[in-house]
Amino acid sequence: MKFDDLLPDKKTPAKHKTSKGKLIDVKIAEEEIEINGRKFLLIQVCDFTEESHALDKLFLSEEKLRTTLYSIGDGVIVTDDKGRVTIMNPVAEKLTGWKEKDAKAKKLDSVFRIVNEFSRKNADNPVKRVLREGAVVGLANHTLLISKDGKEYPILDCAAPIKNSQGKLTGVVLVFRDQSKEREAQRKIEEARKLSDGIVETIREPLVILDKNFRIIRANKAFYSKFDTKPENVEGKIFFDIENKSWNIPELKRLLKKILPQNTSFNDFVVEHNFTRIGKKTMLLNARRIYRDGNKTEMILLAIEDITNRKESEEKIKKYNRLYEVLSNINQSIVRIDDERKLLKTITEIAVSKGDFKLAWLGKRDGNLLKEASKAGRDELFPYDKIDIDKADSNLLKDVLLKKEKKILNSPREYKKDKYLRKAAENGAKACALLPITPNDDSWGALILVSDQLEFFDAEEIKLLDELTLDISFALDYYRKEKERLAAEKIIRDNEALYRTLLESSEDSIYLVDPEGNYLYMNNKYLSRLGKTHAEVIGKHYSEFHTPEGTDEFLDRINYVIANRKPVTYEYKSNRDGRYFIRTLSPACDKIHNTVNAVTIISKDITERRITELQLKESEEKFRKLAESTNTAIFIYRNTKFVYANRATEILTGYNAEELYKMNFWDVVHTDDRELIIERGMARLRGEKVPAQYEFRVIRRDGEIRWISFTATIIEYQGDTAAIGTAFDITDKKIAEEALKESEERFRAIFENLTVGVYRAKTDGRLIMVNPSFVEMLGCESVDDVLKNHTIWDFCSDTERREQFYRILLEEGIVYRFEEVWKKKDGTLINVKESARA
């Protein structure tokens, strides 16, 4: 056997079987050596079976550790004692953005970058602390891990030291967890809590949460607001003890005690109480069990609703419904009953039977007496069939009748001294309403309503009572007007003959034709114009007495009046005798059938007026010649248009007459003045009183603005109302006035703002003008105070010195820095230097 055959494979380490068949682990080392000049190969074979077994165990242990680290859901980073990364599990790789192979041997700060969530400052490295302190440490709250790719993760972590068997620190293990989901869950929980708190605080009804011992855990803002209290007066207190034991009600305690043991609830428990701070209220309570999972706590949620206003509203609605029923029944009676006495009796009966009044008394005025017209209810409350409104020292009804003003008396103290109403107070009446009845605004009488309830009449009921009195007044006015109508019809019938006589005696021709032009009626004046008798004309056609041309024109106008249902007035000249007439055609309407069944014609002779107009025209020509020869602008406007303008008007406005005749009279007026000029111009044409002379601006055709002084008066022009105006250009005067005004304003501004006292006075010492500094210097209240109540002599302490001042001023015309001693309003003396000019 060769020596090599005894050796195992040259691989190190290797397995070797001994002569006894035992398999061992060996290490082989070869080395060349030289002995006595000869080279030999020295082979060393070493048994390291036990060492190999130990290494195998270590390898298995490390594999188990790595498998464990790679399997857990938290991020794990292991460093050596220098803070360099040695191990990273996949979760750590994902959160840091680093692969393990890339991170190995790198400083932890490069791989595991953490900052404060709010300040964004770098957070303390936990591994450094462990290496420094040798103890387990955790991250601060609100720590963000910033990944290699920039993503941010909220994390929670801790770091622990790794020590060998001798206790030497050999590294650090860092365990951290992504808290994103926990944060989101926590955020939702917090949002839900805030939402629930917000809902509780937003609910308008008071809410209270009680523990099992009925101590108040919490109350919402509405509770504190409603009961005008604070948390320190409520929270932690027994519910039945707060508010001076307002809630210590046996039945309420019984219901609340059943809620937790029996898991019951209750609704609409009514509490009426006069609370300490908020007064008498009606509260509606609802309660149920609530359970908090977090700390396994049972509680009672108590909701309190203030229904005071609702109950009052319900009572008001009942009362208003009664009044509406009264109004409805009375209105039906007004429609149904046509006898005034019977209606008044029905009204008082309805007021008592339907309106819950204890008395209803209607009185009708007869001079100074108010006489009973109708009464229902308790007679002892107002036992009078008539009263004298002038004989009582205190008589509320007198004011009602004379001033036509209602009196609402909601308490006996308001009427117990009244001569007539004290009986009502003595017999149990609590409230009275005295209401004027005023048909057509006449003081007819009064309605008295009596109730046995204090404060019975509120604002809404008073409105309904106003409506009631209006309805009664309307009915009485209707009865009165119906009587008047019947009387008027009789008068009309009696006077028809008189009206016919008036028509027949009229100087105007009056006749009536049907839509076809046939005569239905004509007066004597018209018959005399035709030279015919009534029998010769009635029923005949218009054409039988007039020319064809005149007939056609007349029928056209008849058709127009019928089609448009409005009158037409026009002038025509008679072919018979050449006289002039104004003819008015008016439709005669059948209102029942809404048709025009005839046309009335009134023909007035205006021949004399026409002659006068011709003479006036001649006069106008003379006026026109005069107007054209003057430098004063003269113009006439009718309705809104210029109808005449002389040459001076053309020069003033820059427009020629033809252009002006197409314009409204205000079109040349400056826009800032136009509204006033339109208002006055139209008012003048309506005959209203307006200033005859005033100034305003006009805009010439070339855009130049000129001021004018304007005078106008009303004239009759060509048969119509018109206005004639004259105008002078006062622009230069206005410019001078503005310059003067500006100068005065500059002077006043300087005068008012001077810091030295300035005054103007007459030679007798009366003050004309003073500035604020003068007022302040002398301790006076105001400029008005000085001017109204003082002279300059009031402020001079040395009369002789003052007289010397005036002598110098009058002789030389000027005084410069004259020294005096003056006295202020309060008597204090002051030294002044005065400069003046006469």
UniProtKB/TrEMBL annotation:
InterPro entries: GAF, GAF-like_dom_sf, PAC, PAS, PAS-assoc_C, PAS-like_dom_sf, PAS_4, PAS_fold_3. Keywords: Kinase, Phosphoprotein, Transferase. Residues 139-191, 692-742 form the PAC domain. It comes from Melioribacter roseus (strain DSM 23840 / JCM 17771 / VKM B-2668 / P3M-2). It holds the Pfam family PAS_3. This is histidine kinase. CDD domains: PAS (cd00130). It catalyses: ATP + protein L-histidine = ADP + protein N-phospho-L-histidine. One of its GO terms (molecular function) is protein histidine kinase activity. The keyword Ubl conjugation does not apply. Its EC number is 2.7.13.3. The keyword Heme does not apply. Residues 61-134, 495-565, 619-688, 743-779 form the PAS domain.
